[in-house]
Specification:
alpha+beta; three-stranded antiparallel beta sheet; 1 helix; 3 strands
């Protein structure tokens, strides 16, 4: 007589496999939420920096325009100004009056200068809180 012996592994194997798959999906969902939160915070920081730079740039163009209006009454032919972007950076603008260009200023230097090193954020938020 042939006796067939069955191994008892097939009883709960499918349940264990489903549990493992669900755990993997939950882990990937958590990582996805954490990654999207980090991307959102980075986008907000870059937005603030970009608008601060363009505000300083606009202020520099207004200062050049005012200097052009005043240059007709004064003999000063150069423009050199530092405009604050934020607490760590300044915009350095240098321009000279160019009579060959219809008495307009020719921009010689338009440079962002780091005044002080920013404090690095070394905290690590493992949960979604700030």
């Amino acid at each position: 007589m042939n006796k067939r012996t069955s191994i008892g592994l097939n009883i709960g194997l499918s349940s264990i496999l489903v549990i493992i798959v669900i755990l993997c999906l939950v882990c990937f969902a958590g990582l996805s939420v954490a990654s999207s939160n980090a991307d959102k915070q980075l986008t907000n920081k870059l937005s603030v920096r970009g608008s601060a730079y363009y505000s300083a740039s606009s202020a520099a163009y207004r200062a050049i325009y005012e200097a052009k209006k005043e240059s007709s009454s004064s003999s000063e032919n150069s423009f050199d100004k530092y405009i604050n972007i934020n607490s760590n950076q300044q915009l350095h603008v240098v321009a000279d009056l160019n009579p060959a260009n219809g008495d307009n200023y020719e921009i010689l230097c338009w440079q962002v200068i780091t005044v002080s090193e920013p404090e690095m954020d070394t905290s690590l938020s493992l949960l979604l809180g700030n």
